[in-house]
């Protein structure tokens, strides 16, 4: 869980840098203020695709190497179920399942604060958020849902010997 929270902090930094780049390019191209971005559905959709692409690139680069910075800190290694390094299929599937489970939770809670009728949806999405963690409690190999579906597993990495 600590690795997950550390990963979240790192991902926030990556997303903030990517968003700053997107907004800077948007202003250079359109000469409009950043507030104009929220008025255009196409720009918002492009922004979302850009952020998801950057997040995918970050995780794909790290997972194909076996560890993100947070995983390295906590000595966790990500491999295929047979112990081999991850391929693009496993990376994409793990990212997609994790995204579907975890991504919608926060925005719906923001909306639910202003629209009481969305609270039930927010609670259901919170349950979806915790589904991969609950899955690991009942999985015979203690794998998360996204690891089970992608055919990956987390292992404890041996200590590094910095000579």
UniProtKB/TrEMBL annotation:
One of its GO terms (cellular component) is plasma membrane. The keyword Cell membrane applies. The chain crosses the membrane at residues 43-63, 91-112, 118-138. InterPro entries: Pra-immunoreactive (IPR051791), RDD (IPR010432). Coiled coil: none annotated. It comes from the Bacteria. Its main location: membrane. Keywords: Cell membrane, Membrane, Transmembrane, Transmembrane helix. Residues 2-151 form the RDD domain. It is a multi-pass membrane protein. It is found in: Cell membrane. Pfam families: RDD. The keyword Cytoplasm does not apply. This is RDD domain-containing protein. It comes from Iodobacter fluviatilis.
């Amino acid at each position: 869980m600590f690795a997950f929270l550390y990963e979240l902090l790192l991902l926030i930094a990556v997303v903030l840098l990517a968003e700053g780049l997107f907004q800077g390019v948007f202003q250079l191209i359109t000469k409009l203020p950043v507030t104009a971005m929220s008025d255009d559905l196409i720009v918002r959709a492009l922004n979302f695709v850009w952020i998801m692409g950057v997040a995918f690139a970050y995780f794909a680069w790290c997972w194909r190497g076996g560890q993100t910075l947070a995983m390295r800190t906590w000595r966790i290694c990500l491999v295929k179920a047979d112990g081999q390094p991850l391929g693009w299929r496993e990376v994409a599937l793990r990212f997609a399942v994790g995204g579907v489970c975890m991504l919608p939770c926060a925005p719906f809670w923001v909306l639910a604060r202003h629209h009481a009728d969305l609270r039930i949806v927010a609670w259901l999405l919170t349950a979806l958020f915790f589904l991969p963690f609950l899955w690991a409690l009942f999985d015979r190999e203690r794998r998360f849902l996204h690891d089970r579906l992608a055919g990956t597993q987390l292992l404890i990495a041996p200590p590094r010997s910095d000579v």
